[in-house]
Amino acid sequence: VNQVANLTLVSSACDMVSTAYASTKESHPYIRSVCDAAEKGVKSVTEATASCVQPVLTALEPHVAAASEYASKGLDKLGEKLPLLQKPVDQIISDTEELMSSRVADAKDAVSS
Fold first, then answer.
1. Helices (H), 1-113
2. CA distances from 106 to 63, 101, 113 (A)
3. Which of 15, 32, 83, 110 could connect to 25 by a Cys-Cys bridge, CB 3.0–4.6 Å?
4. In terms of domains, do 102 and 75 share one?
């Protein structure tokens, strides 16, 4: 999970969502109250679940470690094959806009000629 969270694409997307969430909460008092209540509910459920799940996680720890290692190797290979994962969202959007603009210009030139 940490490795996925540290991918540039994922971390920049999370930052964007977090900024939008905070801005929306700040701008809209009704939404803020709903979000605050939801956050408290999630925190309570997480805390209650953590104590119940801990014994199961302890028993499964060797299996989780093996799965984590396997997933880590898979993510490394995925990162090699998809360099897009190492770019921030705003750069991907910018690159896409440039590509689309270029394609539209090419299409206009083709139609004109």
1. 2-5, 8-27, 29-81, 89-112
2. 53, 9, 11
3. 32
4. no
Judge whether 35 and 21 are in contact, CB under 8 Å: yes
| CA distance linking residue 86 with residue 93, whole number of Å | 14
> What range does the domain containing 36 cover?
1-81
Say yes or no: 8 and 25 in one domain.
yes
pTM here is 0.66
| 101: its two tokens | 């603009």
Task: Give the separation between CA 103 and CA 110, rounded to whole angstroms.
Answer: 10
Q: Phi and psi at residue 87, in whole multiples of 5°?
A: -110, 145
Helix (H, G, I), strand (E, B) or coil at 111: helix
Tens digit of each residue's pLDDT (9 = 90 or more) over 57-66: 889 999 988 9
d(CA 90, CA 96): 10
CA–CA dist 54, 46 (Å, integer): 12
